[in-house]
Amino acid sequence: xxxxxxxxxxxxxxxxxxxxxxxxxxxxxxxxxxxxxxxxxxxxxxxxxxxxxxxxxxxxxxxxxxxxxxxxxxxxxxxxxxxxxxxxxxxxxxxxxxxxxxxxxxxxxxxxxxxxxxxxxxxxxxxxxxxxxxxxxxxxxxxxxxxx
Length: 148
Description:
The chain contains 3 helices and 7 strands, in the order ααβββββββα. It has about 150 residues and is of the alpha+beta class.
């Protein structure tokens, strides 16, 4: 494979990729999303603090040449679920994060307007389920289901 074909291959991490967006605009967007996403991870850490053996480990992933916060939740030493942002922009929503586990993939969206506080909604992988506001109870029930 030549260098050109290797570097022109699109990343699987991109939900929407637009090469015409400047690096400055991408960095600005990443900073905005990082704040919202980190607040989500703080909430989730608080939601599971009293569940024995559960922990959150934060990390970063690179999307469109900028870093966004990602996270993994462990049950003991076993990976329970990974939080992976899918891109800097998502059509119709403020942000999308995939929740990946061995059993299923769920999605959370921030449906708030850019200037409003985040409004995270869970779209379950279970057939026929409507989106639900992501709350402590909803999230803990999701953890129980995917870690049976």
